[in-house]
Amino acid sequence: MQGCCSFAGDANQQFDRPKVAAELKRFHENGPGITTRLLIEGIVQSKALGPTVLDVGAGFGGLALALLEQGASSAVAVDASSAYVETARHEATRRGRSASIQFVLGDFVDAASQVSRASTVTLDRVVCCYPAWEPLLTAALAHAEHCFALSYPRSAWYVRAALAIENGRRRLARNPFRTFVHPVRSIDNLITRSGFALSVRRETWMWRVDVYVRHGLRR
Question: What is the spatial distance between Cα 47 and Cα 65, in angstroms, rounded to a whole number?
């Protein structure tokens, strides 16, 4: 497992200001990406969205802000990229939501003890960016009271090939950031052992989008 400082440094190099600005521009022009849209739809369909949201690897805050619009009263957005956190603060202010959302800069595994539990915990395209998926999900699951929702790459040969090409390009560019296809069955087993049952699952050619609800809370 990479240390926290190494991961944070890699994330800052990968998600720098120009890249984040381009991503936000696409969002303003086209709306949320496919995994974000599916997570929002799945959480609404599950009827498990509570008053508080914790978005791990929140990027510029698009998912957290959308869940506030869906009825959550407050959110905490955590990201290791300073460019993302800075942009997310500006976006929340622009949308009149700065009083409802708190931003935390850092590797969530290390910052977890400083973050309160939440009704809904989300990780949108985050598991694939983290070298050690189990400590990340274990920390996130410990914070989820009602709903746990995430998107991550499918374990298919063509997905592995696509990410290998991306990682090869980064290697040539001397960019240490890497993406991963972690074992999907092990991910599901960890979540269900933590007391959650799958409520909604959607898939694209590349991504799996899952919404889990704690046992006894399904409606």
Answer: 18
Using the structure block, give the residue that is written with the tokens 């997570």.
39
> β-pairing, 196-203 with 207-214?
antiparallel
Tokens of 188: 């599901």
Cα→Cα distances 134→21, 109, 147, 187, 188, Å:
31, 10, 18, 8, 11
Is residue 219, in this structure, part of any structural domain at all?
Answer: no
Full strand arrangement of the beta sheet holding 74-79:
101-105, 74-79, 52-56, 118-124, 144-153, 207-214, 196-203
Give the tens place of pLDDT for each residue, 27-79. Answer: 999 999 999 999 999 999 999 999 999 999 999 999 999 999 999 999 999 99
Domain count along the chain = 1
Residue 20 lies in a domain: yes
